[in-house]
């Protein structure tokens, strides 16, 4: 059993790292924020962790904390101008942010290695470290979902006008969503740096942006388990169907369209709705 687990340790760690990044996207979407900044903030966290690990020999745990801190600061700074935007304007502005970060990573060659990449990063985090970081992120997301923060996020997402009429300060809650999302994206980027031996700016471009968005839409945008299920499906699918591995982006795009048309609530949310509806019918049937 332990030998079989060791054989799949790398794949399992990849699922958990992708799930951490998906939870960053999940939090902003749950609050009604159409931010696509996760890839850019993950890039900042990854390079911060890599630079600390290589040039100052910082231990993996401290590098991850620093990556999370960089992500938190980036999320807060980004929220100052963008929390007042809505919809497509927020999406375009955050896309521009990602492009700016990638350009900085490309041209700040003395610091990031530029197009040649930041290489010789020691592997500082193995599966137990990834699992522990994922568990912390999951605990935070569950705590947020069950608190007044989660209820405020849900109200804002469902109807912002009603939220304002109830006295909810929408801009402030959106800023909190940006900050929490940035913290988790920075941690996800730090995990990537501490597990990969090299970083290049392309690691955080459009493919990563599409991947985290697809994972949340596929898994579900309301249930906490949604991003984990989405990350597991999209990470394992190319492994199960190896001929599709070279077409990962095409598969992600096709799944995104398919789910949006057939299962608009995602896998977990659709199953939860179905089970709830079935339980209500059974209750009505047995009622005298």
TrEMBL record:
A Pfam entry, by short name: BPD_transp_2
CDD domains: TM_PBP1_LivM_like
Topology with respect to the bilayer: Multi-pass membrane protein
GO cellular component: plasma membrane
Cell membrane is among the record's keywords: yes
Stretches assigned to coiled coil: none
Name this polypeptide is given: Leucine/isoleucine/valine transporter permease subunit
GO molecular function: branched-chain amino acid transmembrane transporter activity
Annotated compartments: Cell membrane
Membrane-spanning ranges: 32-54, 61-82, 88-108, 120-144, 176-194, 206-234, 254-275
Keywords linked to the UniProt accession: Cell membrane, Membrane, Transmembrane, Transmembrane helix
Major place of residence: membrane
InterPro entries per the UniProt record, alphabetical: ABC_transp_permease, LivM-like
Source taxon at top rank: Bacteria
Naturally occurring in which organism (per UniProt): Blastochloris viridis
UniProt lineage: Bacteria, Pseudomonadati, Pseudomonadota, Alphaproteobacteria, Hyphomicrobiales
């Amino acid at each position: 059993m332990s030998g079989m687990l060791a054989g799949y340790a790398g794949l399992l760690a990849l699922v958990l790292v992708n799930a951490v990044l998906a939870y960053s996207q999940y939090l902003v979407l749950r609050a009604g924020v159409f931010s696509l900044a996760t890839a850019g903030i993950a890039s900042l966290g990854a390079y911060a962790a890599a630079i600390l690990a290589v040039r100052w020999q910082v231990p993996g745990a401290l590098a991850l904390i620093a990556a999370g801190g960089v992500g938190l600061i980036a999320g807060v700074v980004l929220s100052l101008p963008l929390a007042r935007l809505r919809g497509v304007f927020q999406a375009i502005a955050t896309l521009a942010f990602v492009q700016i970060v990638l350009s900085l990573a490309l041209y700040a060659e003395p610091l990031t290695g530029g197009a040649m990449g930041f290489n010789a990063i020691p592997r500082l985090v193995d599966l137990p470290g990834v699992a522990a970081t994922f568990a912390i992120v999951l605990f935070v997301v569950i705590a947020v979902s069950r608190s007044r923060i989660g209820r405020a996020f849900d109200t804002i997402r469902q109807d912002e006008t009603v939220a304002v009429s109830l006295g909810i300060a929408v801009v402030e809650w959106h800023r909190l969503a940006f900050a929490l999302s940035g913290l988790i994206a920075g941690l996800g980027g730090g995990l990537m740096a501490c597990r990969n031996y090299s970083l290049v700016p392309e690691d955080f471009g459009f493919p990563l942006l599409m991947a985290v968005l697809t994972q949340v839409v596929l898994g579900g945008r309301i249930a906490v388990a949604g991003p984990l299920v989405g990350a597991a499906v999209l990470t394992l699918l190319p492994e199960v169907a190896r001929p599709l591995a070279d077409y990962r982006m095409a598969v992600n795009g096709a799944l995104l369209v398919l789910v949006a048309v057939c299962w608009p609530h995602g896998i977990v949310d659709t199953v939860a709705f179905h089970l709830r509806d079935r339980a209500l019918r059974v209750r009505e049937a047995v009622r005298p």
